[in-house]
Amino acid sequence: MPVKFTTMEASLAENVAAPRFRTLLLGIFAGLAVCLAMAGVYGVMSYVVGQRSNELGLRMALGASPGDVFRLVLRQALILAGMGIAIGLVGAFAVTQLLRSMLFGVKATDPATYAGVIALLGGVALVASYIPARRAARVDPIVALRDE
Questions:
Q1: What is the domain partition of the chain in residue ranges?
Q2: pTM
């Protein structure tokens, strides 16, 4: 049986290929999860604004400005997103024990990572709820009251 000679770089690349591939897959699935979260928040907020159009029209007829309605819808979306992020953080702390063996050079409970995720998901919720909030601010009070 002949002896196989390889360089250190080739041997290292062969040894880290599987963990690198798993990390790539986790990154891809994380990106897809963020896209799904954004679509989900948009869908829920769009549905809620559609269901509450009569109420929002009544608020505007009674003197609420479009900015007040816009802030009301955004505040509701961010409160819901905040509760979801808090529940997700609890789940993330519970799952870190499984991922501890796959992390190199980073602690499983790295505060910077958690802060980045919180900022990213908060931004995603803000962007996804912006369009429904803008639509709610443009509700015509006369049309909303006429439908009632």
A1: 38-147
A2: 0.69
Tens-place pLDDT, residues 41-63: 888 888 888 888 888 888 888 88
pLDDT tens digits for range 72-82: 989 988 898 89
Q: Letter for the amino acid at 131?
A: I
Is there a contact between 117 and 125 (Cβ–Cβ < 8 Å)?
Answer: no
Q: How many CB atoms lie within 10 A of CB 6?
A: 10
Rounded-to-integer distance, Cα 144 and Cα 133, Å: 16
Q: How far apart are CA 45 and CA 142, in angstroms?
A: 23
Amino acid of residue 36:
L
The tokens 């897809």 sit on which residue? Answer: 32
Query: What's the token pair of residue 113?
Result: 């990572």
Residues in contact with 6: Cβ distance below 8 Å, sequence separation at least 6, in sequence order: 14
Query: Contact at 8 Å (CB) between 92 and 36?
Result: no
